[in-house]
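ok trying again, last paste got cut off:
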Amino acid sequence: MFRTAFFIFANMNKVLIIGATTGIGRELAKQYAQKGWAVGATGRRIEHLESLKATFPGQIYIKHHDVSDQNSLTKIGELAIEMGGFEVFIYNSGYGQFNRELDFVIEKTTIDVNVTGFTECIGWAYRYFKNQGFGTLVGISSVASQRGGFRAPAYNASKAFMSNYLQGISAKAHKENRKIEVVDIRPGYVLTPMTERNPSMFWVAPVEKAAQQIISAIQRKSPVAYITKRWWLMAFIMRNLPAWMAKGI
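nice, full thing came through this time. structure:
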């Protein structure tokens, strides 16, 4: 019986999600677990991770983790060992806040999480998949990556960095002939604790629907996916607006 259980676990699909305490990351963890996947989940709020683990005993592995910590990669490596490896890596950690006064603390926190932490984790995951021989690397960026924004300048800029960096990693994998797929997920407005106080939202998607479409895009290995799908239109408009019109975004 033990050998049978071990065989089943060893052959389970496995995903590691960076930033799974609330919002999109938590919903992705739940939906992957419901599909029978083993899930590695990280985040800063351990109580949220514990409740997630309790909902799916034996399927979800957790690690208290902050992408801006010095020991960030050590903790991710420990989690990878505990769950017996993985083939999908999702960077979902993100920070954003309106900052019309350009408070540097807000700008720096945004950069620490969305740029520095992202780059460090994506590099680690790429090397992991390189050694493993295959894998799917996913970044949750944003439609905001398409244009600068006056409400949260560092947020839009950091998401543009993420999308551009993922393009570079995809090109690198192709050039090196690696079996590493790269997926850039660009959500529009999704109802999460991070966005619920934004009064100017439109085309708002329930987090459950957003997670379903994200998982589908990852399964298809789409290079770029807008969530929900109609946000491709807004992204097209944002990219092609004349500079004088874009100042109002």
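cool. Strands lie at 14-18, 38-43, 60-64, 88-91, 135-140, 180-187, 224-227. The chain is about 50% helix and 15% strand.
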